[in-house]
């Protein structure tokens, strides 16, 4: 069987990747600012609900109900979608799903397709597979577009370009769109609007994910903010939706829980600007050909684990990322997967399904078990318990080594982070201490070796970069 | 060889997940909000809100503009002095109009949301997407207090669009910026 593209080929283990990320102070600054903002706003959006805990309990129970009768509900969904003129496809793994989508694009003679942000298609590496097959997929969500144009990788579930600040985004847009633009968020958004408008108006095929699928009505639900989703779901003639088999809710009524839990947990809004719901094909309104691709890709294996299966309740809100102290310091890319942060630490290794894979096996150790993720999770996934459970599996698969013991204490992330911060401060201080371009004494940690020799002063680069380059 | 469908279903059954107790819906399904809360919450999204008694009079604001309107909006809404654009309209014509006028199916006070379902006075989905300005008329009796109440009033198999303020993005440093691909201006007339 082909490897599961949920992890990026060649990614180092979490501790190795994190060491590099921790050294990137710009990244940490961008992340601290962004997650700090969203944490506060989420707390306010949740705080105004008097029945939040009851909603969370209902969310948990509805999803557990889905997992307990997934076969029946999937068949029901297939029947309702088919009855309304849609076509349902099933895919065991990423390779099979990608082939289905590529064949559908080819059948429409589409060389270019527009895409709505979707975790499922990112998980299976659909864009790369389409590209290899001669079909170019254009990401239309602003953050996805930033990642795509920057030849970059995502670092967050909701805001894949969260690691980029406005001036970095400006640079990417100027370079790739060939336009002059300021670094004001409003101007950058306007640049994206102009860039994508023509593509929306001419695309014949769109590809989307799904936040929810309602088994009894066959309705598919997509939540978004920018209107790029509506463009893709409304204008093209053909719509292909790719979703994990666990994205179901049994009834239309169940959505009343998730349409309250998800927006407040993810974008910290009472409601996101746009939510689209469609069922099969509606004559005279929207795409007249609709394909639904249901993907397993490690989910049924996850379902077998009585402790780990709760990860399949996840509605991809990203609240757990935003509160995670490890994520805030290491950034999303250290996790080597489209699913970073606490949910990534428990979902990715299960989807990979091989604890002998050192990268996947290192992920459950990417946590300090502080429990903040469980507190905010709108479907009450007990992430710390699953982490502990998966750590035991990883240790068992590997044999207990010094590395696994060291990794078990994610405290090193904090130690490293604060060491870099101290070093950074020491660096700026060093410039004042320098006389005639030489430094004779440095505060710790530089002092460790200024004691033994004189060193040239760091001129403009950060102390950390300079230190690394010069320590020999 | 088993088909993908058969194999996936077999794997699910093989996982033998035990059945669970029925869902406890201990949350508030009623809500208490009305017109006032709705108006306040729509305005929070930086949409423009007016409470009016006379729709035609309020529509004076459209004078001199080229406005799309579904063919089945109330005849009195089609006031003089506006160039009304009716279906069939191409994507380009919609894109080049000055705005669109519609009614709605349901509104939600708790969240400041309007919901379109393509029935009377709303047209197909592209109508409220491509024009840069959307003027939506909401009758007081269409306002549901809560999300649960609103969903109950809706028919899930219709194409539904839930709209909460103008299009927006928070993708740059998580700062909210209004106006990306959908209408950049949303104006709501609440008819009391
Ligand atoms: S695990 Fe919970 S908090 Fe994290 S993304 Fe999923 S639903 Fe949200």
TrEMBL record, chain B:
UniProt domain LUD: residue ranges: 91-191
InterPro entries: FTHF_cligase-like_sf (IPR024185), LUD_dom (IPR003741), NagB/RpiA_transferase-like (IPR037171)
Gene3D superfamilies: NagB/RpiA/CoA transferase-like
Record Pfam families: LUD_dom
Highest taxon listed in the record's lineage: Bacteria
PANTHER family linked: LACTATE UTILIZATION PROTEIN C
Descriptive protein name: Lactate utilization protein C
């Amino acid at each position: 069987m082909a490897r599961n593209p949920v992890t990026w080929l060649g990614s180092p283990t979490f501790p190795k990747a994190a060491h590099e990320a921790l050294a990137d102070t710009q990244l940490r600054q961008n992340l601290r600012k962004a997650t700090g903002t969203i944490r506060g706003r989420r707390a306010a959006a949740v705080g105004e609900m008097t029945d939040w805990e009851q909603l969370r309990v209902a969310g948990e129970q509805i999803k557990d109900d889905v997992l307990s009768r997934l076969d029946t509900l999937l068949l029901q969904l297939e029947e309702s979608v088919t009855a309304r003129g849609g076509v349902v496809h099933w895919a065991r793994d990423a390779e099979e799903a990608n082939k289905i989508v590529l064949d559908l694009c080819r059948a429409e003679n589409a060389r270019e397709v527009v895409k709505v942000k979707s975790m499922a298609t990112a998980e299976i590496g659909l864009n790369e597979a389409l590209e290899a097959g001669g079909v170019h997929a254009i990401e239309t969500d602003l953050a996805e577009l930033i990642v795509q144009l920057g030849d970059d990788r995502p670092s967050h579930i909701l805001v894949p370009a969260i690691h980029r600040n406005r001036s970095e985004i400006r640079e990417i847009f100027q370079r790739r769109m060939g336009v002059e633009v300021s670094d004001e968020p409003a101007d950058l958004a306007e640049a994206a609007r102009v860039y994508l408008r023509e593509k929306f108006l001419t695309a014949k095929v769109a590809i989307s994910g799904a936040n929810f699928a309602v088994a009894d009505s066959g309705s598919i639900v997509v939540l978004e903010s920018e209107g790029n989703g509506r463009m893709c779901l409304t204008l093209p003639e053909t719509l292909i939706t790719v979703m994990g088999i666990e994205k179901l809710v049994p009834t239309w009524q169940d959505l009343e829980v998730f349409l309250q839990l998800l927006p407040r947990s993810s974008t910290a809004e009472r409601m996101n600007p746009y939510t689209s719901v469609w069922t099969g094909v509606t004559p005279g309104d929207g795409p007249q050909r609709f394909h639904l691709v249901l993907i397993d890709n490690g989910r049924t294996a996850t379902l077998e684990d009585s402790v780990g299966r709760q990860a399949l309740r996840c509605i991809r809100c990203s609240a757990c990322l935003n509160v995670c102290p490890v994520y805030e310091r290491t950034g999303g890319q250290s996790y080597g997967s489209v699913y970073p942060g606490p949910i990534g630490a428990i979902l990715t290794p299960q989807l990979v399904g091989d604890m002998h894979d050192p990268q996947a096996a290192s992920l459950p150790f990417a946590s300090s078990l502080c429990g903040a993720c469980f507190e905010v999770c709108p479907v009450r996934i007990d992430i710390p318990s699953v982490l502990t459970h998966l750590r035991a599996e990883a240790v068992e698969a590997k044999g207990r080594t010094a590395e696994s013991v060291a990794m078990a204490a994610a405290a090193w992330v904090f130690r490293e982070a604060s060491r870099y911060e101290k070093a950074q401060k020491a660096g700026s201080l060093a410039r004042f201490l320098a006389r005639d371009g030489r430094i004779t004494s440095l505060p710790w940690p530089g002092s460790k070796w200024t004691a033994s020799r004189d060193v040239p002063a760091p001129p403009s680069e950060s102390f950390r970069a300079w230190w690394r380059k010069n320590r020999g | 060889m088993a088909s993908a469908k058969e194999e996936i279903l077999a794997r699910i059954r093989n996982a033998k997940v035990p059945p669970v107790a029925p869902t406890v819906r201990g949350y508030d399904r009623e809500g208490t909000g009305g017109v006032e809360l709705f108006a306040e919450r729509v305005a929070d999204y930086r949409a423009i809100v007016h409470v009016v008694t006379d729709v035609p009079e309020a529509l004076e604001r459209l004078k001199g503009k080229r406005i799309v309107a579904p063919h089945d909006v109330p005849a009195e809404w089609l006031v003089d002095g506006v160039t009304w654009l009716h279906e069939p309209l191409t994507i380009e014509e919609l894109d080049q109009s000055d705005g669109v006028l519609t009614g709605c199916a349901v509104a939600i006070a708790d969240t400041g949301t309007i919901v379109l379902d393509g029935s009377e006075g709303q047209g197909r989905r592209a109508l409220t997407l491509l024009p840069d300005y959307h003027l939506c008329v909401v009758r007081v009796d269409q306002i549901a207090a809560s999300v649960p109440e609103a969903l109950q009033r809706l028919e899930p198999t219709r194409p539904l669009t839930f709209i909460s303020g103008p299009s927006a993005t928070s993708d740059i440093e998580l700062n909210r910026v209004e106006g990306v691909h959908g209408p950049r201006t949303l104006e709501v007339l609440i008819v009391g």
